[in-house]
Every structure is written in C-alpha cells, then in structure tokens.
Amino acid sequence: MRYMSFEGEGRASYGIATDLGIHDLGARIGSVIPDLKSYLRASELGLVPATAADLATDYAVGDIAYLPPITEPGKVICVGLNYEGHRLETGRPMQTYPTLFARFADTLIGHGVAIRRPPVSEALDYEGELAVVIGRSGFRIPRGEAASFVAGYACFNDASLRDFQNHTHQFMPGKNFPATGAFGPDMVTPDEVGALDALKIETRLNGVVVQQAKLDELLFSIEELIAYVSIFTALSPGDVLVTGTPGGVGFKRTPPLFMKPGDVVEVEIDKVGQLRNEIAEELPKG
Length: 286
Hints:
This protein is 14% helix and 33% strand. The chain contains six helices and 18 strands.
C-alpha cells in the first residue's frame, strides 16, 4: 500500500494512493482516526477496519496538494555520515555509533511544495535520503526484531543551510529552518518495496544527477538504527528516522553547488517514489 496525507477541497485528510487515484480514508473514518499517525497507532492496537479490496477513487492526483505523509511526527531523528562516500568527502573519521540529530516536525513539507531559502543564507544544500516511518511502539528493540517495527518508507530531502550547520559541531541550526524538510510523496509499506539492498537512491538538481548510491551502502542498517535509537528513547507509531545521505553534496564540490530560487530538486528511490520540490525564497512572516 501507498499511504499519503493531502489537502483536498480545502480539507486536510489522508488515504491510499492507487493507480487510479486517491482513496480518502479521512472521509470515511476521520471522525475517530483523524490522521495517518493515528491510523498507525490504531493499526497497532488492531482497531482499524479491514480495507476493502476494491478501493473507491475519491480524488485524481492533480486535484490534491501533498502534505508530508506523517504531518505531525512525535520524533524526526536524522542520521549523519551514514554512507562511506559522504563520510570520506567530509573528512570525518569512522564512527563507532550512528551520528544523530533532531529535525523539528514543523520544518516538514510535502511533495510539490517549495523548499524555502532564508534571506540569512545562500548556502542551501540538498541531501537525498530514505525515511523510515515507525509503525509499532517499542523501547530497547532487539536488532533481530527491528524490521517488524517499520510501517513504511518514503523519500526525504534533508535540505541544509551549511553555514549555520557549521557554526559549531552541533548540526541543529542548519537543519531546522522553515520549509526545508521535504518528505514524501507517499509512505510505501515494506511488502510493496521488498528487499532494500539493491535499490538505488538518486538526487537530481535541475535534471542533473548529483547523488547516487545503493541502499546496501548504508554504514548503519535500518535494523541497527532502530535498535540503537530505541536504547535511549521509546519509538512510537509515526516517528520518522531519516537514514543519511550519499556522497555528492553541494558544499563539498569545487566550486560549491548550492540550491537557489528557481531550481528544481528531485529525490528518487527505486520502488519508493520520486519527491520533487522547487526552490523559492522564504516567505515573510506575519
């Protein structure tokens, strides 16, 4: 299944993407299960009614606006330096444990929504990544059981303001500007994706490939990440792990390659989907 969150006819909802269009779950059960995170929590408890085999189409894809698949995750935990190519281009030493940082939920945007470059920086960089959505509650999860806690996968662009990221050795400022965490289009369930190892992840800027890798190049696997993160924090349905970016980032190129208003950036992962966002100036507040 491909689950998604969206706005249609001025209303936020969620549903299932099919070849014919979108099946609106929110219109059917939204009064008791209002969003996809609640749907995952209800599924964990066995409270979600069985989905009909023949899913009625309520919207064409062109009639909706995409929201992040999980609109208000309790946690968004990102992984740094998780591909060897990226570790080498940054000059960082091998890590014994995953390099982790937090992204705020209110920085997330959906497929087709503009990534915003703030007026305080021109160093806006791309980072194509695989996101993992948690589907079950767990604390100190054994590695051998970790795969059963995955609800689905999505594309992610951890767009980063490199100057702010490098003000200190803590990444947080450069990773949390408004409208810089692109996420989607859908959350695809593991049974549809199958084995991850041979799948390709690719980032394109204005149609030119700037990052490319196979998912089996992850230094810390998804199972290892779930096991490690859950040592120190309980994971809940709808939490998101963003698993790291391959080599080829813009700030390590000569000259640096940063995104600017008018650019188009795409992150594509085999069997998971294609996330597309334009770049625009940050909107004024107020």
